[in-house]
Structures are given as C-alpha cells and as structure tokens.
Amino acid sequence: MDLETLLSFDWGTMTPEFIILGFIAILSVADLFMPKHVDRKILGWVGFAGVVLALASLVSLIGTDTTSILYDTFRLDSFAIAFKLILLLGAALVMLLAIDYKHNDGLEDNKGEFFYLFLSAVLGTMFMASSGDLITLFVGLELLSIPSYILAGMRKRNMKSNESAMKYVLNGGISSAITLFGMSYVFGIAGTTNLKGIATVFGGLTDPQHIYILGLAFFMIFVGLSFKLASAPFHMWAPDVYEGAPTPVTAFLGAVSKTAGFVIILRILLSIFGYVPVAQEDGQPIPLLFAMQDYIAFLAGATMIIGNVIALRQRNIKRLFAYSSIAHAGYILVALTAMSFITFDAIWFYLLAYVLMNLGAFAIIQVITMKNGSEDISHFAGLYRRSPLLAVGMGIFILSLAGIPGTAGFIGKLNIFMGALMVDQAHYVLVSIMIATTVVSYFYYFGIMTQMFFRPASSEEKIQLPMGTLVVILVTAVGTILFGIMPNLAIDFLHTNFNQFMDFMR
Amino acid sequence: MENAWLIPLFPLVSFLFLLLFGKRLKEASAFVGILATLASLVYSILVLLERLESPTHKAEAVWLTIGNLELTAGFEVNQLNALMLVIVSLVSFLVHTYSKGYMHGDERFPVFYAYLGLFTFAMLGLVISPNLLQTYIFWELVGVGSFLLIGFYFYKESAKAAAKKAFIMTRIGDVGLLIGMILLFWQTGSFEYDEIFAAVEEGAISGTMITLTAILIFIGAVGKSGQFPLHTWLPDAMEGPTPVSALIHAATMVAAGVYLVASLFPLFNASETAMLTVAIIGAFTAIFAASIGLVQNDIKRVLAYSTVSQLGYMMLALGSAGYVAGVFHLMTHAFFKALLFLAAGSVIHAVHTQDIEKMGGLWKKLTFTGPLFLIGTLAISGVPLFSGFFSKDEILIAAWAHGNYGLFWLAVIAAFFTAFYMFRLFFMVFTGEARSEMKNVHESPSVMTLPMLVLAVLAVVAGYVNTPWFGAFLGDWLVEGNEALGHGHIAGPGWIMIVATAVSLLGILLAWMMYSKNSISRDWLSSRAPIAYGVVKNKYYIDEIYNQSVVFATKAISLFLRFIELFVVEGLVKLTTATVQALGKTGAKIQNGQVQTYGTIAFVGLAVLMVIYALTGGYL
Amino acid sequence: MSSVPVSAYLALALILFCIGLYGALTKKNTVIVLISIELMLNAVNINLVTFSKYGANPSITGQVFALFSIAVAAAEVAVGLAILISLYRNRRSVNIDEVNQLKN
Amino acid sequence: MTLTGEFFAFMSLALVAVIGGVLLLNLTKVVHMVVALVFTFVSIAGIYVLLSAEFLAVVQVMIYSGAITIMMLFGIMLTRHHGDEAEPKGGTLRRLFLLVGVLGFGAAVYFGIYDLDFEAVPNTLHENNTEQIGISLFSHYIIPFELTSVILLAALVGAIVLARRDDEKEGDQE
Amino acid sequence: MEFNYFLSLLVFSPLLGILLLAFMPKTNESGIKMLGVLATLPSLVLALLAYFSYRGGSDLANFSEKFRWIQFGGQGAEQSGMFTVNYELGIDGFGLVMVVLTAVIATLAAIASFHIKKEWKGYYMLFLLLEIGMLGVFTAQNLILFFLFFEITLIPMFFLIGKWGYYEKEKAAYSFLIYNGLGSAVLLIVIMVLFSRTGTSNIDMLRVILNTENAPMFAPISESLKMGLLVALLVAFGVKLPIFPLHSWMLRVHVEAPPSIVMIHSGILLKIGAFGLIRFGMGIFPEQFADLAVLLAVLGVINLLYGAFLAFIQTDFKMVLAYSSISHMGIVLIGLGALNEAGIQGAIFQVVSHGLISALLFFLVGVLYERTHTTTLANLGGMAKGMPLASGFLLAGAMASLGLPGMSGFVSEFMAFLGLFEEMPVLAAVGALGIIMTAVYLLRAVLAITYGKAEREFVGVSDIRSFEWAPVLVLIGLIVLIGVYPAVLSEPLQATLETILMGIGG
C-alpha cells in the first residue's frame, strides 16, 4: 500500500476519531509533564473540549455520503453518525461529571490518567459504532472494555472500587471469550470478517448444519455482548460494579457503554444474522434473526423483570440505578425483538432519552453522595427543602425513567410499543411484561420521590452545585422535557438526516 | 284554572324567603307562611269553584329529553286534584296559623315555618301532577318535608331515629313505586295518567303486567300511607311537633298513598288481584292498627294508630271499587283527624306531657279544647250526623257491595275498636280526677283555637256533601265524565248503617264503662289474657321483628362484604405485592456477591438457550 | 487433503474452551481464574486458525484475527493482574470467593 | 482418517493440551497449575504449526508461555498465599450446576461441529506466513492495528496506575 | 375561525398561574392563595363562554384545532398518512359538559384549598398542573394526547396526596399511583395496539376505521382482538371509575387526601373513567360493547350494592363517602350497561351530578374537619346545633346524593334505571335495592353527625363563613339547577348521544 492509496481514502470522515485520539495523546503527554501538585482539573476541561470538538466535527459530517475506508474497517454511514452523536453527547456529559468528581480514596492522584483513559474508552465506543469489520468491532469493544475495567477500579484505596473492578474484569474476560468464540464460528463459515462479505456468503447458505452452527454462534455473540448491555443473563455484574465504581464511571457504564453495546449488537445482529436464511415449515425461509425472536423476547422479558423486581429492595442509590439500568436494557431489547420498520428509530430515540435522563440522574446522585459520603437513599430525604433545583431536576429524570408522559422517556417507550405491536405477530406478552414491570418500577422510582419531597431533611444545609454538574443537570433536564414535549425535534432530525439508515449495508 | 300551577309556588316562595331571611324575621316568619298558604287556599277555592263548572284542565311542557323520548312536566286540574288542593291548602293554612301559637318561643321558629312551606309546596305539587313521574318527584319531596319536620327536634335521639325510620320505610315503598312506574312506562310509553289509562283500556298491557305494576305502585302507597307492613314509622313520626303530625301525618301526606291509588284507580280496577290486595291490606291494617290503638297510652300515638287504621279503611274502600267512598273518607278524615291532632296539641301545650295516664279532668280547664276534641272524637267514631259517619258508612257499603264480606266484618270490628279507643282517650284525658301536678293549666291562645274551630265545623258538616239522604253530590261530581271510576253512589243494604251506628255506640259505651264509670276494670283484658295484651301493647313486636330480620340481615350482609373486602379484594392485592417482593428477595439473594456465581448464571443461561435451540430449532 | 479432520481441531478448541470456562468459574485463586480466561481465549484462537486454513474461504484473516485476540488478551491479563494487586493491597487475599462485599 | 504423521502430531499435541487443562483443574498448588498450563500453551503453539500458522506459533510461545505465564507467576509471588489452593467451600451446588451447563454447552456445540467439513480449498498460508500476516496487518487491518496500540497503551497506563503503590497511607478500610 | 387556539388557551391557561406562582415568595400565604384561585378563573370563563356560545347555536367544530406534533416512522409513513400524531384539541357536547364541570370544580376546590396549612406555593402549582391535565383529558382528540393528559393528572395527585394528606398519606399516594399506574398501563397497551395497527390515534378516525369493513390499516385487527381491547379498556377505566374489585386504592385516597383534593378527585378524576368508557369503549368498539352490556350492568349492580352495604358499616364519614362513590359509580355502569338512550344519558348525568355532589360533600367534610379535627362518626354528633348551616348543607348534599327529586342525583339515577329496566328488568329490580340502601347509609352517617345530642366540645365551633360560602352555594345551585331543569345538561349532550347510539345501532 503506497502513500497514494493511503491518501486516496477519505480520512476526513474519521475526524472525530482523530480528534479524540489527538486529545488522548495531548492529555497523556501533558499529564506526564505537568508538575505533580497542579490540579488535573484543567486536563478534564481540555478533554471535555476535545469531546465537544469531536461532536462538532461529527455534526459537520452529517449528510456526507456513506464512506468506507480500507474494506469497511472504518465506515461512516448514517447509522454510525446517528449513534456516535449519542455516544459523544453522553461522553461530554460524563466528562463534566468527572471533572467535578472529588473523592479522597485514590482517584485524586490519577485524575490525569482518568481523563485520557476515559477518552480511550470513548474512542472504543466510536469504533464500535463505525465499523463494518468484525475485527475492528472486536478491537473497538475491547478498547472500550479495558479502560473501563481500570476506571472502575480507580478509587484505589476503596475496597468496593477494587472489588468492582475485579468483578468487572473477570466477567468481561469471560464475556469476551464467549463473544469471540461465537465470532470464530461466524468467521469460519463465512471465511471473511467483513460484515458485507459475511452477509453475502450467508445469504446463499443452504447447509442446515452451517445454519445450526450460526444459530449457536448467534447465542454466543448475543449473550457475550449482553454483558455490555447488562441484560439477562449477563447482567449480574452490573449492580456490584456500578456500586463500587466512581460515580462518573458508573454513569459512563450505565449510559454510554450500554449505548455502545446496543450499537455493536445492532450492527452485528442485523448485518450478519439478518441474512442467514432459516427454512420454515412452509418452505419460505426467514432470517435467522427473526427465527430467534422468541429467545430474544424471553431474554428481554427476563431482563425487565429481574431489573425492576430486584430494584425494589435496594437502599443504595447507585445500586438501585444499576438495576434500573438493567431494566432499561430490557426495554430496548423489546424494540430489538420486534424488528419492525421503526426499530432503529425506537432504539435510537430511547438511547438518546436514556442517556439524557440517566446522566442527569447520576449528576444529582454524584452531588448527593459526594456531599454525604454515603450512597444510602435516605440522603435524598428533604432534598426539596435543601435544594429545590436538584429535587425538581431529579423529579424530572425519575419521571422520565418511569416513562411518564411529557418526558423523553415516555416517547421512547411509545416508540418501542409501536414497534412491538405493529408487526403482524404482535408481541402482546412482551409488551404486557414491559408495561407491568414499568408499573413495578414506580415503586422504587417514586420511593426516591418520597424521600425528596415528603420526608424531612436531616440537615437544612444548602447544597452547592459545581459548575460542570450544573450544566449537566440543566442540559439533561431541558433535553428530557424538550424531547418529551416536542419529540419531533429528534425524530424529524433522525429522518431527514439519516434516511432510515438505508445505507446500513451499502 | 290556567294558572293553578301558581298554587304550590306560594309556599315555595315562602320556603325560600324564610331560608334566606328567616333568621332576621324571627317569629314574624309565621306571617310569611300564613300569608303564602292563605294565598294558596284562596286560589285553590277559586280553582275548585271553577272546576265545578268547567272540564279538566291540563297543561304540560317538556322537562327532559332522552333521545326521542320526551318527559313532560305540567299540571292538571281534575275533580280529585281540585278537591285535594282545597283540602291540603286549607289544612295547611290552619296548621300554619295554629303553629304560631304552638311553636311560640322555639328558637328555630323560622326554620319550622320554612319546612312547613317546603312541605306544603311539595304536597300541593303532588296533587296537581298530571303524570306519574311528577307525582313521584313530589312524592319524594313530601317525604323530605316530613323527614325534616319529624326530626325538627334534632337534638333528641328519638326524633333522629324516628326521622330516619320514616324516611327509610317510606323509601322502601317508594322504590316499589319507582319500579312499578318505570315498568308501566316501558309498557305504555308514557308516564301520563290519561295515556296509561288509555293503554289499559285498549288492553295494550298484559293482565299480569297490570297486576304487577299495580301492586308495585301500591307498595309505594303502603309505605307512604303507613299500611301494614310498612306502618311502623308513622307512630314514631309523632316525635315531630304536633301541628306537623296534624298536617302531615294525619291530613295530607299519609293520605297521599290513598290519593295515588285513587289517581290510578282505572289501572287498579283492571286487575282483580290488585284490587283484592289493596282491599285485604286495607282491611287488615284497619283492624290491626285499631287493635294496637286500644292499649296505647301516648295521646299522639293513639291518634297515630287511629290514622293508620283510618287509612286502611280508605284502602279497603278503593280496593272494593269504592272510589268515591275512599276519597270521601279521605276528605272527612283530613278534617276530623287534623282537628284531633290540633286539639291534642293544645292539650299537650297545656299539660306538657303526652302520657294520658298522667292526664285527667281537663274538661273543665280546657273549656274550649275539650268540646272540640269531643267533636273530633264523635266524628271519627262514626256517630251519626257527624262527617265520619257518612264516609265510613260509604266504605262499609262499598265493601259489602263488592262482595268482600269477610273484609266487611273486619271493618265493622275495626269501627267498634275505633269508637272504643277514641273514647277511652277522651275519657282518660278529659274526665276523671284532675291530677294534682297539673298546675298552671290554661287554655291555648286564640290563634290556636280558631283553626280548631274551623276544623270542628268542617268535621261536622263535611259529611253532608255526600249522603244517602241529601244526595251524593260529591260522588257524582267526582266520577263525572269518567266511567272507569265507578258510580258516584253505591247503594247498599240499609242495615249496614244500623250496624255501623250500633258498633260505634257500643264502643263508646264500653269505653265509658271502663274509663269514666269504672264499672269495668281497666285491667280487665290485661289480667285475663296477659300474653295477648302484651303482644298488642308491644305493637305485635313488629319493630322487634324488623330489627331481628331486616336490619340484622343488612348488617350481616355488610359484614360479610367487609370480610370479602378485607380478605379477597385486599388479599389479592397483598398477595400480588408479596409475590413481587418475594421475587425481588430471591433475586437479591441470588446476587450473592460471588463473581463466579454471576458468570455461572450467565453461562448456564447461555447453555440452556443453546440446548433448547439444539433440541427444538436446530437442524436434523 | 488433511488427515486430521477440521472437526478434530474444533473439538479440541471446544474442550479447551470448556475447561477454561470451568476453571474460570470454579477456581478460588484469582490468578488461576485469570489464566483460565486466557485458556478460553486460546481455544478461540485455535478455532480461528483452523478456520483460517480449513474454513469456507481459507485466508490469512483468521490468523490476523487470532493475533489481535492475543494482543487484547495480553492487555486484559495485565489489567486484571493490576486490579488484583490493587485489591490484594487492601484486602490481603487473592481468594475470589472472599470478594463479596458488594451484593444483593 | 488415516494414520499419518500429522495425525500423530495432532493427537499427541491435543492430548498434552487437554491433559494440561485437566491438570489445571485438578492440581492443588497454584504454581503447579500455571506450569501445567504452560504445557497446554506450548502444545497449542504446536497445533498452530500444524495449521500453517508458524508466526502465530512463535507468538503463542512468546506471549503465552512466556510473557503471560511469567506475569502470572509474578502475580502469584506478589500476592501472599495461604498455602494450597483449597477447594472453595459451599460452592458444590454451583459447580454441579456449572458442570451441567458446560456439558450442555459442549454437547450443543459438538453436535454442530462433530462432522463439520468444508470443501477443501488449496491455500498458501504456509508460504511466507509472516509476510502475509504483515501485509494484511499493515494494509487491510491498519485501523484495528492502531487501535490495538491504544488498547495496549491504556492497559499499560492502567496497570501502572492500579498496581503502583501509593506512597501515602495504606488503604482505608471501608 | 375566531376560536383559534381557544381550547389550547382554555386548557393551558393555568400554566400562567404556575409561572407566576414560581416567582411568588414562598411565605406570602394570602397572595399565593389568591393567585391560585385567580389562575383557575380564565379556564372557567372560557369554559362558560364555550358553553353559552354552544347553547347560542355556534358549532362546536369551530373550536377544534390541530397541528402536526409527532410523526413516527419517517417520510414513508408520513406520505401514507400513517403514524402521525397531531396535537389536536376539540370538544363535543359531552366533552364540553365535562370541561365546564372541571373548570367549575377546579375553581371551587382552589377556594376550598384555603384550608391548606403548609407550603401553599407547591400546592397550588401542582394543583394547577392537575387542572391542566384534567381539562386536557376532556378535550384531547386523539388517544395519545389523551393518555398524556391522563398521566399528567397522575403525578400532581401523587404529590398532593403524599404531601398534603392526612396520617397515612404516603401509603395512600402509593396506592393511588400503583393502581392508576396499572390502569393507565393497560390503557396504554390498548392505545398503542390501536395506534400501531391502524396507524392513527385520532378518535374519530378510529371509530370509522374499526367499524368499516376492509378499512385500510397497517396491520389487521381481528374481532377477538377488538374484544380483548375493549376488556382491557374496561379494566383500565375500571380502575379509575372504580369498578369492584379494583376500588381499594380509591378508599385510601378519599380518606387520606386533603378534602379539597378529594373534591377534585371524586368530582372529576373518577369521572375520567366513565368518560373514557363512553368515549372510547362505546365510541370505538360499539359492537363489542353491546356484547359486554350485560356484564357491565351486572358489575354496575354489584358496585351499587357492594358500595352501599359497606358504606353502611363504616365508622368514618370519609369512608362512608368513599364507599358511596363506589356505589354511585355503579349507577354509571348500570346506565352504560343498559345501552339505550335513557341509560347512557343517565350515566352521563350521573357523572356530572356525582361530580358536583361529591365535591360538595367533601368540601363540607373539609369544613367539618377544619373545626373538629375528626371525621369519625362516633366522635361527632349534634353538629346542627353549633353549625346549623353546614349541617343543613350536609343534609342537602346527602339528599342530593341519595337521589332526592329536584336535585341532580335523582335525574341521573332515574334515567339510568329507566334505561336498565327496559333491557334487564330483573337485574334492575335487584339494583333498585341500592336506592334504599343509599338512603339507609347516608342518613345513618349524616344524622349521626348533625343530629342527636351535641358533643360539648363542638358547641362553640363556627359555622360556614366567608370564602366557604362560594363552593357551597355554587355547588348546591348547580345541583338543584340540573335537578329542576335538566335540559341545561341534556341539550348539549344530544348530538353526542346520537353519534354514540348510531354506532351501537349500526
């Protein structure tokens, strides 16, 4: 490959990735050479600027033609742009949280590392969204995972943080192995790692044995990746890890990393298993993905039930949100199960809403837990008196998480319901489970409300909000309400700019 | 006559006016009420006079539209209505006047007059209703008026209980009326009396349906008129101020049941069974209540049972096709019973007790009330030449002529009882020893005695509008132009009048011997048949039976339902939440903090999925 | 062509994968757990390399994939060990079943 | 299936690999386990050679048998051990459960692969194997390759950050 | 065209109050209260304006307004006219009546809220939000908008109960939330099934589509599915109404919520159930509804008797009224079950009438509690002595409630039974027992409070005073007005009734 070929690629489409990469380099070097006593907060702001810059350049890329670099190892299609928008938005918000995060148990010495490790994880998520090749996808996945393991354990002197990292890395390793095992079979039967190539090969498959193996591979990949989603059966690490990890990392895992998980799962499932023909009794073959609907539905249902039901018993706010995030993964899986023509819309919108509301909630959780040094839910008592802004903000996020109309969370759920009910074999049971568990979720969501609004405060001390956190809360609250009242802003944006993701496989 | 609808409005205006300004007017409120009823009275008389000449007038307007059904409201002036208007407004006017003296000094004086106004409005509205629905509306409103007035002394537990009882017992009857009325509506398509009668005449309704609806409507009448078995509220209703008893529970409202049956006479008449039911219930009530009246010691209660008994007479008359007799007795009864109550009120006003055992020798002290009371007593006892004599005679004839011989004899015995207990009452109150504690007994003011006087005159002369000797003027007029109501005068054997006279005189004689002469011991019966006496004394234990059965059953059902509420409804909820909680607990328990457990579960989950897939969806 | 059937290689990989998995989920010592995970990844690599040679469309890609997998595995082990050491420093134990402060 | 040299080679290598794995499960001393696994890793390298992946075989020996194992040993030595690797208590149910799961998993997969065969396509993997990999890696897969470098950087930094001993106070026990 | 934005203005005018309140100082009690009441007035004025202009002959269609709000599914769907959700408000006669009722009761409840003792600011803000929700429910022209408003009523209620309620307020708030959450969840399923499969959520369109053979739909809806949907609707609105055995939440709310809120709750919120059943159940599924008529009538009779018998043994006046509400809602069901003109009109009348009556009764409960601090029957007695006016009104309210002619309760009860007697005379006769029981339990309770010996401690209490006159007089006035001249209500309803009956007949 000579220079000419190298330059012939449209590297401009990778600008956001290059920006992040560049900032990783800048931060790591700066951190190395900065005197030890200088507050690393400044690096955080630099990193934040980097993410914002990347976001800006990504926005400028909206509308460019689908580009593919080096046999799809990087591709910029509308799917990639749409989801990278969410990822970068989430990353920027988490970055702000991380800047304001103060905890005196080991993290403070390594704040500089924290920021660029975080950026590398973000880079990983971006590649997960933006690749058409199994190898890049896998590497992107690991680029997300490995810094995440470290980030979770960065409160070095906190045993919970150590434990959380340990659990995360062990589960992550196993899940990677399982995913890879599945991928190896896919590769074996396709003989290529290019998703389009795989799709072409699979489209012509007739040997039932191969299809059977692909079915197994489907399970391995799906279950392996469900680790990232924190959905059943690979969900159990989530509460422990979320509880132990530093709050911004928890926010990151709960929102951005989960989004990335959905991105990769959509990419792989749709482009690979959407093309495997499974013979039916009536002779009309259907895609393997559709044949697997019952299994996905089962997992989705189990996820929703597990998440919501166990959340009822939680007293630790971060743990509670961990279970809640499991439940939300289940909701999104419902959209995936349905495979209607609005599945993409539904998942995209839900993830957008979810990132906003979840990060908003975590911003407030971070403020409260930092203030009290404990994560017990009772510290929310009387929040309304101490800081009406925080209480109302949290109220909005909780309403949105609970799917109350007027918030983005509701429109997100609406989309999912539509998808699940509009297909010919409508998923009534699944939708019923989803709605029933949503109602169950009222118990714990409104339990927080009860604390905030009904219970007396233990102290009347006002709560000071750091700048960055305030910005996060405002942005997410406004977004949550805005997309709840005028969802068309987002939905029309999606449709005008991304044309139904028609170029997904092109 | 076109403006007859104004008649009920006067008292309504009085009611509203007193509600708003009564507090300021204090006892001057009386004048508002009196004036209003006087207006009604005058107008009613004018209407009656006009009606004597001209035919029935009816005017209606749409009240409520239901799809293409139109329910109307309006008024009608036919013979019965016109007569009732006068009776009601007259008695009401007199009671209004009387009350000014009787209620003097009561702190809720204006409220009393307001209530009276409300009641008079409702009662007048009731009697000019052209259709069943409107009848029902006012029917309920008079019930409320009655309820309010019975419970006028709200701080007395007994008044509270009596008011509640009155309302609920009549309500039971009302539901019967409501059902009957609605059924009739779906059969005939109308609530209008004339259309219903037309439908009945055409045979548009099956016989069973006529019987059913007639009996259901009769249940309403039973409730309102205190007929057996819904009679128990009426004696208790004596908790109200005495003028109220006179107006509502003697002259007007309780007669509404009779009025209703009379209004619907063509319907009843179309069903033998219904007629027989009415007659039997009437006759039975007549003797049943009379027998209780024999042993009561409360002056008002005696009168109350007497009312029940007399209402039974009227029912018997109607049930025996004696339309005229029934209405006639209704009229005469209104006068003499109102008179008796007012006189009783005057007595109570004077001696401040209602227990006749504690009275005696008042004849000399109450020189005015005494004779008036005696006139009433004579009238009700059916002593010849008094009004009661003529109307009762008509009823007996009707019963005989209709072939209800058994019932006829019951009525005769009841007449005997009536004469006996009324004179027992009279003798115990007015004759004999004057009690020592009866100091300061003085005659009532003229505002009270004058109304009694008017009533007394009527009690004497009202009978002459319809007599075998001077022509059945009333009867002819009542049935004029409407054959369905039967004849204006039913001829009966002449001996009936003699029998009637004989039993009443016998009763008076017996009473005189026992209570005035003391030639027969007062304990004659109670000592000889103590059980029977006890039963009668305790009103046949009807209240107790109701308490043990209906009230008990209601409570039992309620408790049973509460059991369901607690254990089934709530239990299911608790079960559900408990299940969810238990699920959560189990889930949390599995989440045991062992990272290898997590991995195991994830992996086993995967394995299970794959095995299921291999077994079901797999190839081969 | 080959005297060893593809399925033999695949079966070997499967067996090693299962062993690794079993080890990872039962062994008490965290180091051994980590190394068991490596064994699982090795099994995957055998698969990849086998398919690279005998698969539907033999090409070097499988080996490259395996190479990436090895690199990633190495990184993972490094991080895993670092976390282990950090944990050990606070807890003085490497027994995985004693790491259960976070639960329910 | 003919008895060729390749077959014998495969069988013996496979046997060693599996025995190594089984020993990993059954030995009681941690160090022994690691050593047992070295055998597995080495025999896997041998298998790579059979599969015309010489470069990978070398990498396997260097990284697994070398680097990773050594790292593990360091890890073992750096952390104090309570003697032998005793059987974890109480986990019997879980192990049984897992065993059934593993067997089910194995059976399901084995069911798919036991007679899997592809049309033999002649290939040239064994010729200039390293060069082929190199070309592929630096042209086709340059992007993941570069990403891997970021991963390694992150792992490196992370490992240092986490494993570095803090000079100040020792862990506050929470 | 002069009515553009009229309904939006009507529905959202309380928003102005919320905004102004936000800037009020927390401690300005009388200012907040005044503003709170004033803020309800624009809606009231507009509602009355609408009513009188309709009576004056103007067409209700003039009030409709419609904007594109959300477009699901992208351009493809938009071109086929599917999956568009408009912001569309409109009223028919029934809606108009309900809007007027809501506006009236809201204003009166705002006045009654003067009794509230703490945190007036938050109270009135939530109160006004609740009003928006209620007004919106009755004007929404499509199901999704309806649902949005429906849920908007839920949240303020939760807080109003939970914060300003009595002893067990939190439990009551939860009970309310979960039951209604379940109800609305079921409702949401129905809405989404309809929307997803027909592609529209407009109520009139749905009425047409579902009752036309071979109407264009996105996915088919079978007859059995329709039945299922109707049953689900019945459950959803059955919770709200409430229908036995879904009623237990409502008892708690009645007992624990502040009386001014119960006025709203019992007066309006319960009626949404009936409104929904008539508007959607009857409107959209007329044939299926006819099949269920017997069931409804039976449920109605059960409700009527069950409520009545249980009200009979309650020891707390609020409980009596709560069960009385259950009982009275049975009459609504009876009317609906009759499924003829009289029945349906009776049901609607009952909706309005009970709204007024229960508002009156609960207002008086508030007045009573304000002075005596108890509502236990055993502790009360002889109140007619100390507060003759309040007692009189209470008695009047009870009389209205037990169906005294001349008051609204009679008209509705009469028509409902009139209707049922035509269809199912035996059942109706059984139900008629309820009329007796109503008298029994109401008199028992009311007389226990007002009549009898006066409790000494209550002798000195003050009677109805100052602002308390307004609700009492207005409510009594309306009750009597409807009772005497029902045409005020029946005439606006005729057009709606015809539409409904046409659906059932055809």
TrEMBL record, chain A:
Catalytic activity: a quinone + NADH + 5 H(+)(in) = a quinol + NAD(+) + 4 H(+)(out)
GO molecular function: NADH dehydrogenase (quinone) (non-electrogenic) activity; NADH dehydrogenase (ubiquinone) activity; quinone binding
EC top class named in words: translocase
The organism of origin for this protein: Mesobacillus subterraneus
Residues spanning the membrane: 18-35, 42-62, 82-101, 113-129, 135-152, 168-190, 210-230, 251-275, 295-313, 320-341, 347-368, 389-411, 426-446, 467-486
Record's protein name: NADH-quinone oxidoreductase subunit N
Keyword entries, A-Z: Cell membrane, Membrane, NAD, Oxidoreductase, Quinone, Translocase, Transmembrane, Transmembrane helix, Transport
UniProt subunit comment: NDH-1 is composed of 14 different subunits. Subunits NuoA, H, J, K, L, M, N constitute the membrane sector of the complex.
Task of the protein: NDH-1 shuttles electrons from NADH, via FMN and iron-sulfur (Fe-S) centers, to quinones in the respiratory chain. The immediate electron acceptor for the enzyme in this species is believed to be a menaquinone. Couples the redox reaction to proton translocation (for every two electrons transferred, four hydrogen ions are translocated across the cytoplasmic membrane), and thus conserves the redox energy in a proton gradient.
Compartments where located: Cell membrane; Membrane
Keyword Phosphoprotein: no
GO biological process: ATP synthesis coupled electron transport
Superkingdom of the organism of origin: Bacteria
Membrane topology note: Multi-pass membrane protein
Listed Pfam families: Proton_antipo_M
InterPro entries: NADH-Q_OxRdtase_suN/2, ND/Mrp_TM
Similarity annotation: Belongs to the complex I subunit 2 family.
EC number: 7.1.1.-
Residue ranges constituting the NADH:quinone oxidoreductase/Mrp antiporter transmembrane domain according to the UniProt record: 131-432
Gene Ontology CC: plasma membrane
UniProtKB/TrEMBL annotation, chain B:
Molecular function as annotated in GO: NADH dehydrogenase (ubiquinone) activity; NADH dehydrogenase activity
Enzyme class of the recorded protein, top EC level: oxidoreductase
Keyword terms of this UniProt record: Membrane, Oxidoreductase, Transmembrane, Transmembrane helix
Membrane topology: Multi-pass membrane protein
GO cellular component: plasma membrane
Keyword DNA damage on entry: no
Family: Belongs to the CPA3 antiporters (TC 2.A.63) subunit A family.
Cellular localization per UniProt: Cell membrane; Membrane
NADH-Ubiquinone oxidoreductase (complex I) chain 5 N-terminal domain ranges (all copies): 63-113
E.C. number(s) listed in UniProt: 1.6.5.3
InterPro entries according to UniProt: NADHpl_OxRdtase_5_subgr, ND/Mrp_TM, NU5C-like, Proton_antipo_N
GO biological process, any: electron transport coupled proton transport
Primary location class: membrane
Name used for this protein in its record: NADH-quinone oxidoreductase subunit L
Membrane-traversing stretches: 6-22, 29-49, 80-99, 111-130, 136-155, 167-185, 205-223, 244-268, 274-295, 302-328, 334-354, 366-387, 407-430, 450-474, 494-515, 595-615
Gene3D superfamilies for the chain: 1.20.5.2700
Domain NADH:quinone oxidoreductase/Mrp antiporter transmembrane: 129-418
NCBIfam families: NDH_I_L, PRK06590.1
From TrEMBL, chain D:
Membrane topology note: Multi-pass membrane protein
One GO molecular-function entry: NADH dehydrogenase (ubiquinone) activity
Catalytic activity: a quinone + NADH + 5 H(+)(in) = a quinol + NAD(+) + 4 H(+)(out)
Membrane-crossing segments per the record: 6-27, 34-51, 57-76, 96-114, 141-163
A GO term from the CC aspect: plasma membrane
A Pfam match: Oxidored_q3
Subcellular location: Cell membrane
Assigned EC number: 7.1.1.-
Swiss-Prot/TrEMBL keywords: Cell membrane, Membrane, NAD, Oxidoreductase, Quinone, Transmembrane, Transmembrane helix
Superkingdom of origin organism: Bacteria
Function according to Swiss-Prot or TrEMBL: NDH-1 shuttles electrons from NADH, via FMN and iron-sulfur (Fe-S) centers, to quinones in the respiratory chain. Couples the redox reaction to proton translocation (for every two electrons transferred, four hydrogen ions are translocated across the cytoplasmic membrane), and thus conserves the redox energy in a proton gradient.
Matches recorded under PANTHER family: NADH-UBIQUINONE OXIDOREDUCTASE CHAIN 6
NCBIfam families: PRK06638.2-3 (NF005168)
Protein family membership: Belongs to the complex I subunit 6 family.
Name of the protein in question: NADH-quinone oxidoreductase subunit J
The species this protein was found in: Mesobacillus subterraneus
From TrEMBL, chain E:
Organism domain of life: Bacteria
Molecular function via GO: NADH dehydrogenase (ubiquinone) activity; NADH dehydrogenase activity; ubiquinone binding
Annotated GO CC locations: plasma membrane
GO biological process: ATP synthesis coupled electron transport; electron transport coupled proton transport
Membrane topology type: Multi-pass membrane protein
Family: Belongs to the complex I subunit 4 family.
Protein name: NADH-quinone oxidoreductase subunit M
